[in-house]
Amino acid sequence: MAATTGAEAEGSPSPGAGPAVRGDAEPASVDTRVPVDVRSASLGVLAVVAIVFTLHWASAVFIPLLLGLMLSYALSPIVNGLHRWRIPRAIGAAVLLVGIIGGTGSLLYTLGDDATSLIDSLPAAAQKLRLALQRPRPSPTDAIDSVQQAAAELERAADESVMPGAPSRRGVTRVVIERPRFNVNDYLWTGTLGLVAFIGQTTVVILITYFLLVSGDSFRRKVVRLAGPRMSRKRITLEALDEITAQIQRYLLVQLFTSAIVGVATWLVFAWMGLEHAPVWGVVAGVTNLIPYLGAVIVGAGSALVGFMQFGTLEMALAIGGASFVIHGIVGNLLTPWLTSRAGRMSPVTVFVGVLAWGWLWGLPGLLLGVPILMVVKAVCDRVEDLKPVGELLGT
Questions:
Q1: Burial, 389: exposed, middle or buried (Cβ in 10 Å; 0-12, 13-18, 19+)?
Q2: What contacts 149, CB < 8 A, 6 or more positions away?
Q3: Is 193 in a helix, a strand, or coil?
Q4: Rounded to an integer, what distance in angstroms lies between the CA atom of residue 268 and that of residue 327?
Q5: CB neighbours (10 Å) of residue 229?
Q6: Distance between CA atoms of 268 and 275, rounded to whole angstroms?
Q7: What pLDDT shows up at residue 33?
Q8: How far is CA 244 from CA 146, 239, 393, 395, in A?
């Protein structure tokens, strides 16, 4: 038998003995690295990019479809009530939509003169604001103006004393390119096409809403039938559809209620402050309140501009704009979160980021549809085992 060396005898453990432990050994480090499947991650990124591209490319189809679906969720309780009174769904939906269109047209006709006067006063307001901003600057007495004046003198001296051998700058003609003035006639045709497209999309939204209201629960039954033969899948699908319907209806009800409060409060406050066309501002504030974050900026800035034109003082303009922001702030930060605490259970950060993303993707319709789309995504993710982390991320 070969003799073992001292190092081998000392380093090799005896049979049946436990693992060798060194006296000065450090505790074993724990591997905290998380394995990442690069192929799956790459496929996920490509899928997200393809979905975003498709949504942007087919926005002319998706936007009217989603708007009609959202309106059908809002109006379906009324049509269902009429159907329980033995009124056919086709007739009830038609009467309801005609009443909404007629009421909107009547309101616009009633406020048409005030709205026209308000629009006609905007150019004068802009000109007055421009003249106020173009006040003569004081003499350069502070340090910044002195430095600027010294720099101008040094540049002038450098231009006058040209170095030998360098090309002379005298006699060079300076060319100034002036941008053409804004001409309304140049944009008239574009505006007409935009108006025609808006009317066409509005008609499509109304037709989609009507057909969805007439169909009733047939669409829900088809979705449940397509979920599969297993009762568990059908039950999960039915629960998701019920939650989506309840959340969207509560969200729309809260939005309509808060928009009415904002419109009435804006009308009363502006009338008390003496601002002209206060009813028009009330309607504008109520409608734009449906646009998250951007609606308050539109009403606040526009009312401040018109207030500056009417009263001629910056203090009054700031007071009017500040009153608008206060109304939106109270309703948006106190009343709306309290009413929507059970409607969506969405994280405010998620709502803000989602609204920005959908606004970037679809513009103004994206701002309106961002929150309902996030509610639908959360309701689906909460009931799919592999997507529950996404639902947890979207929730509060």
A1: exposed
A2: 140
A3: helix
A4: 11
A5: 7
A6: 10
A7: 56
A8: 65, 9, 18, 14
Q: What is the spatial distance between Cα 380 and Cα 243, in angstroms, rounded to a whole number?
A: 9
Q: Do the Cβ atoms of 311 and 296 come closer than 8 Å? A: no
Q: What percent of the chain has pLDDT over 90?
A: 5
- Six token digits for residue 396: 């509060």
pLDDT given for residue 105 in this prediction = 82
Phi and psi, residue 116, nearest 5°? -65, -40
- Both structure tokens of 341: 């605490």
- Domain residue spans of the chain: 54-128+191-216
Greater confidence (111 vs 193) lies with: 111
Predicted confidence (pLDDT) per residue in 39-95, tens digit: 777 787 888 889 889 988 988 889 889 888 888 888 888 888 888 888 888 898 899
Query: What average pLDDT does range 228-237 have in this prediction?
Result: 76
Alpha helices by DSSP H, listed for 134-229, are 143-160, 188-215, 218-226
Computed over its alpha carbons, how large is the radius of gyration of the chain?
Answer: 33
The partner residues of 346 in beta bridges, in order of sequence, read: 395
Q: What share of the chain is helix, strand, coil (3-state, %, to 5)?
A: 75, 0, 25
Q: Give residue 64's Cα distance to chain centre.
A: 17
Residue 237 tokens, joined: 């699908």
